[in-house]
Amino acid sequence: LPPTSGIRVNQESYAPGLPKRVTLISDSTAAQTWTLKNSAGTAVATGQTRPRGADAASGENVHEIDFSAYDTVGTGYTLSVGSETSFPFDISTAGPQKLRYDSLAFFYHQRSGIAIDAAYVGAAYARPAGHINVAPNQGDDNVPCRSDLNCGYTLDVRGGWYDAGDHGKYVVNGGIAAWELLDEYERAVRLGDASAFGDGKLAIPERANGVPDLLDEARWEVDFLLSMQVPDGKPNAGMVHHKIHDAQWTSLPTRPDQDSQPRRLSPPSTAATLNMAAVAAQASRLWRTVDPAYSAKLLAASEKAYAAAKANPAVLADPNDGTGGGTYSDNTVTDEFYWAAAELFATTGKSAYRTDVTGSALYRGKSFTTHGFDWASTGALGDITLALVPTDLPAADVTAIRTAITTTADSHLAQLATMGYPAPYRTADGSYEWGSNGLVANNGVVLALAYDFTKQDKYRDGAFAAMDYLLGRNPANYSYVSGHGDQPVRNVHHRFWAHELDASLPTAPPGALSGGPNSGLQDPTAARLLTGCAPQRCFVDDIQAYSVNEVAINWNSALAWLSGWVAEKTSS
Ligand code: 9MR
Q1: What residues contact 255, with CB distance under 8 A and at least 6 apart?
Q2: For 237-291, how does the pLDDT look when each residue is reduced to its tens digit (9 = 90+)?
Q3: Which of 163, 374, 492, 554 to probe ligand 1 with, by most ligand atoms within 8 A of CB?
């Protein structure tokens, strides 16, 4: 590795024919000369930096280097200014092609209830099935409610993906992650190249079952979401339990099969019920021809959930239910109602759902903000579906939704132009929050969709800029994606990928996205090491720093969507 240098690049690759921009840290107000060298050390291009002055998000004085004009494909390029040299990078289309699949492989690694097989992931990442009721696990096959609930039944909720570095399974977060993988597929079917996700494309047990692998991976989670529904004949039948996780937090490291904590269901919530309704409706239309019986089962579960949510419209998850798992509490469910209605309408065309969509205050793209969408803000997901899937909504209304997407993308572009380290994401006070990298990636999705709908290059370039930020053009000087780039995160917060704590365990496999900078510093390690940090610098690659360096299915689903799109745009 070169000495820590003030030149920050996409550590993996820049695409031929597209903008290639780099950030230099420098207090100089005068332009400086940069030199691009090939892997043999020969200068192949040179130019002047553009001084940008003080940059709020990083707290640094910066210059921009733009070497877009140089387009010769190759590996091992470096940029130099004075005595400083960047990490090496490629000019190539290969990086995105690999990241498209590495980011999806993350989900197989996170599977609960199935042995992770060396045949698909290699020996280092193989592990026994977690939470199938083999001691010391207490199993997810027969899970009771929390002791204060007395719900009078247990559920078999094996399967699904572990949320993150912990072993909780949370419906609202699992739902948006599954939705985003399914949306990646649906967008490719309608606007791109779905063959990239066909059978045999992923290293998963279902790779030769005749079904597109992206659907297979998502189904592992969708089946879990369905299993969280309250059975018929029980109180709140049709509602969906908010989450299932350990009674007490386990320590790091803990391999999933070695977790001995009791597992408990939290109460149903309106948000979880609508989230499942939305995803099951979306899945129902995607499996319509692939597996009609499954498609029908999904739609029945979705409609039952939606009706139950309408009958119980304000059952909120407890913001204090945070022992042994995250809370994922959310006081506003207007957006979940809109999203579920939109998915049900797009799938069925029924007038009742149409009325709920068009009657919502969120109709016609009101949900889009420069903050972005996440597990608590789901209205945009409904709009993305309505912008993609043909329905009998008035054409002008569909146009209004697409315009909301492009208008939001324009706001991102205006902001990117002012930033030293362009990242599409903005909060009211300029702070960065828990999981900021997931929001950056999701806003990259908005830029990508704006390109899909308009074919204007500026939006495509904005989506690529988001990838540049995630892959190393940032003040932390990390690629936030494990195994990609010269200085990738290695010590993400994870109970199995805990090599930092136990040398017999692996580091994160390639393609896992760290949550990234969080000005809130909500864990003791981040608070100790990062006090006073500028927003984009509130990051440390430490396994204990869970509020800045955890991985999570909702962040990786955003990376998967965006990198799949970038891969499509760089394949010739
Ligand atoms: O991603 C979640 C973030 O938006 C919240 O601010 C944070 C604190 O409640 O929780 C994050 O989600 C974590 C969850 O609660 C437990 N599993 C790990 C998740 C990622 O850190």
Answers
A1: 127, 128, 130, 495, 496, 505
A2: 999 999 999 999 999 999 999 999 999 999 999 999 999 999 999 999 999 999 9
A3: 163
Q: Is 493 a catalytic residue?
A: yes
The pairing of beta strand 263-265 with beta strand 240-241: unpaired
Q: 323 vs 29, 166, 357, 391, 549, CA distance in Å?
A: 52, 12, 36, 44, 20
CATH class assigned to 1-92: mainly beta
Confidence band (pLDDT; 50, 70, 90) for 572? low
Q: What pLDDT score does 95 carry? A: 84
Q: Which of 493, 494, 500, 568 is catalytic?
A: 493
What's the pLDDT tens digit per position in 511-530?
999 999 999 999 999 999 99
pTM score, two decimals? 0.98
* Three-state SS at 489: coil
Separation of CA 98 and ligand 1 centre (Å) = 28
Cβ(327) – ligand 1 distance below 6 Å: yes
End-to-end CA distance of the chain: 32
Which residue minimizes the CA distance to atom 18 of ligand 1? 164
How many of the other CB atoms lie within 10 Å of CB of 418? Answer: 11
Query: Considering 184, 217, 321, 541, which one is annotated as catalytic?
Result: 541
Q: Is 164 in the pocket of ligand 1 (CB under 6 A)?
A: yes
The yes-or-no answer on residue 232 being catalytic is: no
Q: Does residue 391's CB lie within 6 angstroms of at least one atom of ligand 1?
A: no
Domain spans in the chain, listed from the N-terminal domain onward? 1-92, 95-119+134-234+263-477+549-570
Question: Is the CATH number of domain 95-119+134-234+263-477+549-570 3.30.160.20?
Answer: no
Return left, alpha or beta for 434; rule: phi > 0 is left, psi -120 to 50 is alpha, else beta: beta
Choosing from 243, 371, 550 the residue with most ligand 1 atoms within 8 A of its CB, the one to mutate for a pocket test is 550
Banded model confidence at residue 571, pLDDT cuts 50, 70, 90: confident
CA distance 390 to 421: 38
Q: For atom 14 of ligand 1, which residue has the closest CA?
A: 326
DSSP label at 258?
G
Interface pTM, i.e. ipTM:
0.98
Q: Kindly give the distance from the C-alpha atom of residue 257 to the centroid of ligand 1, in angstroms, as a whole number.
A: 22
Query: What pLDDT is stored for residue 1 in this prediction?
Result: 45
